[in-house]
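Action item from last week, closing it out:
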Amino acid sequence: MALHAEVVADPRSAGPAVPALVAEARRAAVAREALVVALRAQAAYERSRTAHDSAKRLLDEAVRLARAAGLAERLHEVLVSRAVVQLERGRFAPAARDLDAAAQAAPGGDTELELQRASVLYNVGRLPDAARICRRVLADPRTTRETEAKVANNLAMIEAQLGRPEVALGLLDRADALAGPALGALVACSRGWVLARAGRLADSLRAFDAAEQRYRAVGLAEGELHLEQLDTFLDLRLTAEARTSARRAQETFAAGGAGLMGAEALLRLAQVEARGRDPEAALAPAAAATAAFRAQRRPAWVARAEIVRVTALLAVGRVEPIDLAAARRAVRTLAANGQRAALVDGHLAAGRAALALGRRPVARAHLAAALTEGRRGSVLVRAQARLAGALAAHAEGDDAGVVRHARGGLLDLNRHRDTLGSTELRALASGHGVELGRLGLRALLRSAPPADVLRWLDRIRAAALLTSAPPLEEEVRAPRAALAAVQAELAQLRRDGAAEPATLLAEQATLEVRVRKAAWRSRAGEPGRGGTASLSEVRRLLAGRPLVAYGTDGGRVFAVVVRPRRTELVGLGARADVAVEAEALGAALRRLGRPGRPSRSAPAAVRHAVGRLRELLVAPLGLDPQAPVVVVPDPTTREVPWSALHPGPVSAAPSMSLWARTAGTPAAGGRTVLVAGPGLPGAVEEVTRLRELHPDADVLVPPAASVAAVTATLAGAELAHLACHGLVRADNPIFSAVRLADGDMTVHRLDLLGAAPRRTVLAVCESAAGVPVEGDEVLGLVGALMARGTAAVAASIAPIGDAVTVGFSLDLHRALARGETMADAVHAARAAVDVEDPHGLVLHTAFTAFGAA
């Protein structure tokens, strides 16, 4: 018994020695009891490594030996152990038979056996029945410390699914205080999962990191850890990470014969794909999970898999009456088994399916049930419930109800976003509100005045940028320093003209993952500095200038125009037409911006696309051609070069509220910073010429223009000018960067900058380009600076030649020195550019001002 307990408590330390003890017991033929004990201990070791088929064979032998030798107590122990293994292999009937046989072998019974009966019920999905047994065992004075810890852990998982995460966390505290090293690792994993159910996702990530360390310390296989962490990744919309975890867990369980969790891994993979860009990819794993759960006789899990399947079918537009019937059966099964955590998704899927099939009374009932059930859940569950309410109101033509529920859901989403310290996670979180935002916008466009439409656009646009920067925590600092060292080594190789070794690039990728994960765990800053701006305040700050906010609905682009005395809604062209022209313009600008002889057709293509975009997006608005204008793009128009579309000065901004916030940013004290990056012959000349205008400026040129030096110097400056190469990382947008002497100053690094320059000129290729994410958010250099307090940025949406930027930059800075805003300065500098020169045409077209200062 002691040997088995040692292996269970710390398999890494005690497990490797057990095979030798088994071999020794086999040689001592008379010591049958010793062999039974050793076989059970080796089976525990195999189970800790997810080698369940091997553990089953060892326990089969132990059962035969114990029966033959009449060892009733040992038979009871090995039967209970084999029941656990059978359960985890997905063999519920054999597990139940072993528990019955164990009860007969030791008629007095014990609490460990009762624990395993509860585990069978829990894994079948009968949560209330499992909870009753767990509470009875906890109250039993015969319960050992180890069994009490296991029961408290299992009951915590049940309580979380019954909608009581705070009760669950208290039970986990109790379990952790009693558990040994290995069980403590499992409890830490459970804590991560329960924290996710409570909506505390950053805390969940921290808990899973702690669990991973404890798993490795005792040598536990990490398949279950990857499986439980999936829910956190899904709630954070980290789809790639969730998909990787699902596949790793599935492979681990399949290899070792752990059918129970293998089927659950298939279900989680289906959930990941159902939320991804190709929901049809969810159908195969959902079907495989359903088949596995049916074979295991787990009706509640069959129901969960059916809900995922129907959700995927809805996403691809292929739901049929038979699918609605399946969803309704699944909801009844979930309700009968106390599966409250899954009920909101179940009712929502059934309600959507009924709407798709024109079954409004059925839809109304399920959507109302989702709304009721979800109100008692976490913030994200409440947002889902509000979506159900908005869908029901939409089906009834109740625009006021749609807006009420959509607004409530977006407020819940704001609360969730404000708990996250990472700008990346805050941006991704907006994806939870895409449908709520779309439903609310459509209702307002039908029945509300233009001012209400504008306020709604502001509510759903660039919300991640309105939360202040988190503090720089030690866990972020260490991996970031390691990444900076690797980037410095790569920069040196580039300067020397040497190839970048694959090993060094792989190390950079690994460290980027570590930096991202450290940022995910960081604590949130202050929620929503100032929140959204009122329209009256915005109109005061505009001081007579028009503001144009663009949006899209039903394939058509529209604009809300704020004028001095009125706000109006203007219908524009087709979204597809705008997208085609914007893409053609971007391609032509890139062709012109390449070194060497420019394309002959590209200048005409640029002028044609600019003209078409002006016709589609600006001409119908009736703006004074010479008046300054503020533009708030939407995802369709974000890459449009606004300065080229309107003859007067243009200032763009990610949102109306963010523009208003920049209008109130005070001057920073006059300090100017001029930076030249490596590999640009004209950059040093540009900075040298600019120094004539700013004789007291801090000037950083290679090799002194290091990431650390530039970042430190930028903080709190009044004006900064960066003449550098730029790098847009579509694969990993927070590592889009400005290239400096010893590496890259990334979006992530800017995100951690305590105080950004008040005004910044980015003479950097594609510095205005960002990587869009769901929910009208974008990750890029301009947004990172504005989120940290920069009030004005000048940047380009296209590659620009450094030879033509010197004169442009001088003209721009002269205008700034005269006290003009960034928009006026960019306008003045563009006016002096020779547009007959191909590179000059790129510069004239692509440079745009952002912000109000």
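Closing note: The longest strand covers residues 719-727.
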